[in-house]
Design brief:
Number of strands: 7
Oligomer: single chain
Strand content: 5-15%
Radius of gyration: 37 Å
Number of helices: 8
Helix content: 40-55%
Bound molecules: zinc ion
Structural class: alpha+beta
Distance between the termini: 123 Å
Strand order of the largest sheet: 5-1-4-6-7
Order of helices and strands: HHHHHEHEEEEHEEH
Shape: elongated
């Protein structure tokens, strides 16, 4: 009887006892390790839970590098968002002009050239055609926009070519581009520009005398801001960056100031409606 092989029940009993023993041993081993670790850490706290000075400097350097990479990207994204909002304003104004012209035998609204009241200027004539919100008259990148609105103006000025007829001293019509349906190449004819910072908000100016721009960049930048939407440092000649332009087919395009600068110096006045 005593030499009988152990039963299955007996084998399971041994296994359970072994498992309990192993678990207890493991727990005892872990406690010892933890206790040893704590003893080591007590002596060298910095090594266990803190940073060394070099590690801290490396982290600061990495953060500085990331910041220097991110800041220009963020500022460009912000500038682009402003340009898009400005283009949307111009598009709205263009729709208003189209509606005005449909009800006024094809004529564009007049400029304040020789007008007594600023309320007769084109921007106010567009109020019945949806241009009532003052923000539609403001380019988000124009720092003087608010002051201009308060003085009855806006961030945008009409191209003199389409706003004012050219009349001879004897009262004869020399040329006129005031009627939308008579403009030969609407896709290439500019109607609206972004106003220059050099024009103070106090002086009410709603149109550019663009016939005087040929060969004279100073005349251009005294009336419009060809780098209104630029990032980085402003060039003294305002010929580095972009600005939005509304065309007679009512599309809006952002054009490079450098190209326009070259055209003006080559006596090619970009404001003149092509024939
Ligand atoms: Zn004028
Ligand atoms: Zn703008």
């Amino acid at each position: 009887m005593t030499n009988d092989p152990p039963t299955n029940q007996f084998r399971v009993g041994i296994l359970v006892t072994d498992l309990q023993c192993s678990t207890q041993s493991f727990l005892l081993f872990s406690q010892r390790m933890y206790s040893n670790q704590r003893n080591v850490c007590k002596g060298t706290m910095l090594r266990c839970v803190g940073f060394s000075l070099i590690e801290l400097l490396v982290v600061i350097a990495i953060v500085a590098i990331l910041a220097s990479l991110l800041v220009p990207v963020l500022s460009q994204a912000r500038m682009k968002a402003k340009r898009v909002r400005c283009a949307s304003n111009m598009r709205q104004i263009g729709l208003g002009m189209r509606m005005y012209s449909d009800e006024n035998r094809g004529s564009l609204p007049g400029a304040g050239h020789g007008l007594e009241a600023t309320s007769e200027s084109w921007i106010h004539l567009l109020k019945p055609y949806g241009i009532t919100n003052p923000q539609l008259r403001q380019c988000p990148a124009d720092k003087l926009a608010m002051a201009r609105t308060q003085n009855g103006g806006s961030s945008y000025i009409l191209n003199g070519y389409v706003a004012i007829d050219q009349i001879s001293p004897f009262g004869e019509m020399i040329e006129s581009f005031r009627y939308l349906d008579r403009i030969r190449r609407p896709v290439q004819t500019m109607i609206l520009f972004e106003i220059s910072d050099r024009i103070e908000p106090e002086s009410f100016t709603d149109h550019a005398h663009s016939r005087a721009w040929t060969g004279n960049w100073q005349n251009v930048i005294s009336e419009i801001q060809p780098d209104r939407h630029h990032s980085g440092k402003t060039a003294s000649q305002h010929n580095s960056g972009l600005a939005n332009y509304l065309f007679a087919d009512m599309h809006v395009e952002a054009l490079d100031a450098q190209n326009l600068y070259r055209r003006i110096l080559q006596e090619d006045n970009f404001a003149r409606p092509p024939r």
